[in-house]
């Protein structure tokens, strides 16, 4: 499918199968546009997007405030169709169920919503810059939780360079074109926009088995 | 219409005329048909339709109550259409130029900055609304009257946060009071014709003889 706006165009051709996919690209490269198009929230100019055997789907916005539709955290959980007990126990918001979502910082809100997404078990989960407002510890936690999402299709759209989850496939948006770099670990060597740490490791012949922080740490310490 | 001064002046005249009576409203609608690109520049058709539905419901109630619904509908329709045209034709920076021209580099500049910020907020509000609608759609929640409270809550919170950011930004950049700007305006012959047309609309609304003529025509039509 193609999207063309005033000074921007995006051409995407590919199939996202079950597993965790990383779509990387610079700011303004078209990651959010692609996510919104896959979700059917914006129109595109040509081509088709088909969702075969996909049931419930969800897109996590870059700015978590836009997800707020309830007056309390408990109402928010209900609006996602998840049990609030699960969320509050897993994300550390215990005792805050009557609190307004606006009383949380953007980072806390992002964490709260990631917990909601991961408890929904959607067939298709699109995460637009899920690490945007998080500190390093929170990024690590989110990556760990994402790595354990074993069912459905998960597509992470991000320009995060340090904290990434274990992924199955890497895609890149370069010069307005979506490029499939293939499955990990082979994709890591073909990833032109890879973080400089990964590029240095490849140069030294220490190719990490995946792109998570733990995998990179293992490659760094490899003798 | 390129000159914002003429656009604002024409809008004030037309809205005032439409507010005064149904003749002014009718004339304003004719002006809108003649001098604006009509619906071409309106991008948010759904919002316009929603507004017209609300006005239509109120008009129906008024019509059933005291028979003034048709007049109310015509007047509101003219005001809404003129307002939409004014908003759609707006170019960033125009209100700042307009208020500096009108009020000078102190009070005028302040008013201009406020107007520009309000216009900026208006466009971000629409973007916020789009995102809220998408969120409700993805959650599978039908949009109901009940959702107005959390939606308004979100919009107010977002606006307050943005206002705080803007205030901090202005303070950091050393903004204190007023500024310096030499506004430049471009207009053509059609702008003047449109302004004269708006003046004519105002005269039609105000001049009692025209009202008399209209009532005479209505009596004549009633006899027929």
Gist of the model:
The complex is a heterodimer of chains A (223) and B (224). With 223 residues, chain A is an alpha/beta fold. Helix content of chain A is 33%, strand content 19%.
What structural keywords apply?
heterodimer, A: Rossmann fold, two-stranded antiparallel sheet, 8 helices, 8 strands, B: 224 residues
Describe the structure.
Chain A is an alpha/beta fold and 223 residues long. Chain A has a single domain, classed as P-loop containing nucleotide triphosphate hydrolases (Rossmann fold), CATH 3.40.50. Helix content of chain A is 33%, strand content 19%. In chain A, strands 4-5-6-3-7-8 form a six-stranded mixed β-sheet, with helices on both faces. Chain A has a two-stranded antiparallel sheet with strand order 1-2. In chain A, a hairpin with a 2-residue loop joins strand 1 (2-5) and strand 2 (8-11). In chain A, helix 4 runs parallel beside helix 5 (136-147). The longest helix of chain A has 15 residues, at 106-120. With 224 residues, chain B is mainly α. Chain B has two domains: 1-89 and 188-224, no CATH class; 91-183, no CATH class. Chain B is 80% helix and 0% strand. Chain B is built from eight helices and no strands. Chain B has helices at 4-20, 22-35, 45-66, 69-89, 94-139, 148-172, 189-206, 208-223. In chain B, helix 1 packs antiparallel against helix 4 (69-89), helix 2 runs parallel beside helix 4 (69-89) and helix 2 (22-35) packs antiparallel against helix 7 (189-206). The longest helix of chain B is centred in the middle third of the chain and has 46 residues, at 94-139. The two termini of chain B are 42 Å apart. In chain B, 22% of the residues are buried. The mean pLDDT of chain B is 86. Classes of the chains: A alpha/beta (223), B mainly alpha (224). The interface between A and B is medium-sized, with 18 and 19 residues.
């Amino acid at each position: 499918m193609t999207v063309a706006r005033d000074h921007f165009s995006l051409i995407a051709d590919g199939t996202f199968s079950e597993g965790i996919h990383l779509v990387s690209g610079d700011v303004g490269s078209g990651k959010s546009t692609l996510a919104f198009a896959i979700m059917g929230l914006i129109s595109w100019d040509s081509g088709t997007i088909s969702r075969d055997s996909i049931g419930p789907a969800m897109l996590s916005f870059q700015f978590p405030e836009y997800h707020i539709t309830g007056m309390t955290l408990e109402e928010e959980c209900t609006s996602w169709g998840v049990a609030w007990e699960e969320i509050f126990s897993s994300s550390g918001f215990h005792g805050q169920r009557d609190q307004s979502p606006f009383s949380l910082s953007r980072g806390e809100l992002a964490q709260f919503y990631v917990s909601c997404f991961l408890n929904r078990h959607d067939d298709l989960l699109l995460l637009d810059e899920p690490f945007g407002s998080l500190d390093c510890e929170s990024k690590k936690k989110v990556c760990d939780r994402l790595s354990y999402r074993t069912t459905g299709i998960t597509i992470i759209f991000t320009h995060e360079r340090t904290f990434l989850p274990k992924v199955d496939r890497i895609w890149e948006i370069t010069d307005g074109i979506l490029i499939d770099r293939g499955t990990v670990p082979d994709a890591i060597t073909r990833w032109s926009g890879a973080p400089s740490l990964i590029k240095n490791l490849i140069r030294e012949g220490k190719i990490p088995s995946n792109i998570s922080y733990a995998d990179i740490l293992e490659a760094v310490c490899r003798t | 219409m390129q000159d914002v001064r003429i656009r604002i002046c024409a809008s004030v005249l037309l809205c005032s005329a439409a507010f005064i009576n149904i003749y002014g409203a009718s004339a304003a609608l004719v002006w809108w048909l003649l001098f604006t690109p009509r619906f071409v520049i309106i991008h948010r058709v759904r919002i316009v339709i929603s507004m017209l539905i609300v006005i239509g419901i109120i008009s129906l109630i008024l019509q059933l109550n005291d028979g003034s619904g048709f007049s109310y509908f015509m007047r509101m329709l003219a005001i809404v259409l003129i307002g939409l045209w004014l908003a759609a034709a707006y170019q960033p920076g125009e209100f700042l130029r307009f208020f500096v021209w009108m009020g000078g580099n102190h009070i005028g500049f302040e008013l201009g900055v406020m107007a520009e910020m309000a216009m900026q907020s208006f466009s971000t509000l629409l973007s916020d609304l789009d995102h809220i609608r998408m969120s409700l759609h993805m959650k599978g929640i039908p949009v109901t009257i009940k959702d107005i409270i959390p939606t308004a809550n979100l919009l107010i919170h977002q606006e307050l946060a943005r206002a705080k950011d803007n205030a901090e930004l202005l303070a950091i950049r050393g903004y204190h009071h007023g500024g310096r700007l030499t506004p430049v305006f471009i207009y053509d012959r059609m702008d003047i014709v449109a302004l004269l047309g708006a003046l004519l609309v105002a005269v039609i609304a105000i001049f009692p003889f025209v009202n008399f003529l209209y009532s005479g025509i209505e009596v004549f039509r009633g006899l027929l």
